[in-house]
Structures are given as C-alpha cells and as structure tokens.
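Z., the sequence and structure:
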Amino acid sequence: MAYDDDYPRRGRPVLAAFVTSLITTVVAFIALTAADRRGLLAFLRPTARDVEVPALAGTTVEQARDLLQARRLLLRLEGERPDPAVPAGKIAGQVPLAGSRAPAGTAIQAFVSSGAGATAIPNLTGVKPDEAVDQLRERKLVPGHRREAASPTVAAGLVMATDPPGGKPVEPGTAVALIISTGPATQPVPKVLGFRFTRAKKTLEDAGFKVGTKKYGSSDNYDDEVIIKQDPAENSPAVPGTAINLVINE
C-alpha cells in the first residue's frame, strides 16, 4: 500500500483551524460569562422584577391607577387627545403598550380621551328657525327647546341667539337651545295730555320716544297751547323710538 508523502502537510491546516475555533469559542464563553455576572446582559432576558404591563384602554383614570398599582407600576397622565372610539374621560392610549414588560416602579404614560373632538356651535343670529335646525344637525348637534325674547336688532321670528352661544366648542350630540326674537321690547307710552308742547316733547324723549306730527285742534276741555290728543294713546305698548303724534289746542 502506497502512502502520500503530502498527507501530513494537508492535515495541519485543518487541525489549526479546529484549534483556533475551539479557542475562540472558549474565550467568547468566558467573556459572556463575565459580562453576565456583571449584569451587562440583563437586557437580554426579563428579570424577576419585570412585570407585564396591563391594558388600560377604555378604563377610567382611577381604574387604570389601580391596575398598575397591583403590578407595582405607576401612572403618568400625558394630557388629553380626541378619540372617537373612546368616551371622554377614559384612557385612550398608553406607552409602553399592553403586554410588554417593564421593571417594577416604571411610570406608564397614559392619554385621556377628550371624546370624538369638539365642534363649534354655528352663529345662527338672524337665521330662520328651520334653517338653524338644519345647520345644527349638519354638525351633529341636537336642536334643543325654543324660547322667545325681545331683541332691538333682530326681526321677530328669527333666531337671535343660542344657548350655548355661537362659536363655543362642544361635544357632538350637545343640545343647543334656540332663542327666537319677538322683535324690540315694547313699553307704555307716557301721558302728555294737558302738557305744553315743550314739556310733552321732553317727557316723550325721556321715555325713549320721539315727537311725530304736530297739528292744531280745538277743545273747550283744555287750556290753549296744551296737548289735547296723542297717538298712540297713553299706556299703549310701543317700541322705543316710536313717533308720537300730537294735537295742540288753539
């Protein structure tokens, strides 16, 4: 049987590679063991102090705090944010997420839902009531009850205001009352019969009225140069600014 004189030379590189790999493995094992003893590899596996973060979505703030305290975790509120899927006042999100692990004592960040997002009440002054109802429904607001009030600037039968007022941000579904104008408020016309013109004019103007037409007539029941007739008559309801027509005795 013949032998290859080169066989020992071909075997030496293989043996060297094996020895090198073995030495590298041993050195790496020793290094990792040392690092583990120093706690440098703790991040690779959960420790006995790590706990699972519970799901907080949909809970109240107090419920969330109780859930976390039961697992030795803390709650840190990060403010509000709109969320149409979560009712206002309940937890809408958290960091870290539910199911993750965190060391005991970790503060879990939570966001409280402000609801579906506020919408502003439209300005409905001067709008017909039926049109006002349509505008409210377009914004997912509920037309509330109606009531009447006098307005010196808005014509009778039109919306003069809303409650809550126009421009205020509210939650969808909020009831909005409509205040319908009855026109300017009226007040009784003061009596000026028997007054001289100068006094009658001042009396009317002090009450918010003005002198209309001035005519002359005759009456034996009054002295000369005094008012013997007024229109509208005394105590008649009239809007301030109404002209009161006068007849002066000749």
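The chain has three domains: 49-113, 119-181, 187-249. The first strand starts at residue 50 and ends at 52.

Let me know what you think.
H.
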